[in-house]
Model the fold of this input.
Amino acid sequence: MRIAIVHHNPDIIRLFSYLIADLGFSICWACHTGKETIIHCQNDCPDLLLVQINLSDMKGDELIRQIMETSPTTVIAISDSVKQNPGQVFEAMSAGALDAFSEPSTEQTESLHDLKNKILNIQKLHDSLTTKNKNQQVISIKSTPLIAIGASTGGPAALLTILKQLPKKTNAIWVIIQHMDNQFSQGMAQWLNEQTSINIEIAKEGQVPKIDNVYMASTNDHLIINKTGHFEYTAEPVNYPYRPSVDRFFESAVTHWPNKLIGVLLTGMGRDGANGLLSFYNRGMLTIAQDKNSCAVYGMPKAACELKAVEIELDINDIAKKIMKNLI
Done:
């Protein structure tokens, strides 16, 4: 959890910083005035804001109200004394503060223990909300079309032809499985990014894919999408000759992605992806293979055609248009 502190006294800021570090949290910033606070919150909103009620340039309730309008976050108000200034505390909480505590003093050291408990309770609340939001995000993402593309020999040029035709916003998620040693995948993603408008990045373990992004597998293990909608890398099948495996990703997508799928198999040697594309076809999804004339090696598409897994064969220059038309 990232915490920010607003107080006119540097010694108080330092005391709170030690306490927060002792709890294992980080200080993202600290400042002394209301105007600084508003700017900081807009540029780097913390998970929790500790804010003094009586700042030199702004009343506490006014500051909290502005923060909640422009950069809403969890706020704890700091008062000289909660018991002696109940009106100020209630005004701050009416403006949006979740809680308040008395500023520590030599006579009131128990206030620090009180602050620790409040921060730990807010962490629990924050964690539960974060988990809920992540689950909602996965549900939302899984209602998005996913386009899975497999390629091998001649794949980089074929992929560039498709990706150059895509707009920045496609309202879909794109995943590329290109047979390639992992030491080259980052460079390939960068090379494609430099020549296209859509964002291309490496798929990370545990990542939830985002709409309008293109993801590339980047280890010598196999990329899959798991039942929670996250990317995952797996060594299985260990003895599979193609790494990363197109079939393995296609089959995971069919199993775990409930919405529209489009499977595309491009130029490449061997048979990887043919069985996976057949699983797409059997589920009633659009399946596309690059045609023989535009392939560098007509191996993978041919294998899929032999399995009757291909709904349509297309020249490489026509595949992007077909996909986008199917997404509308």
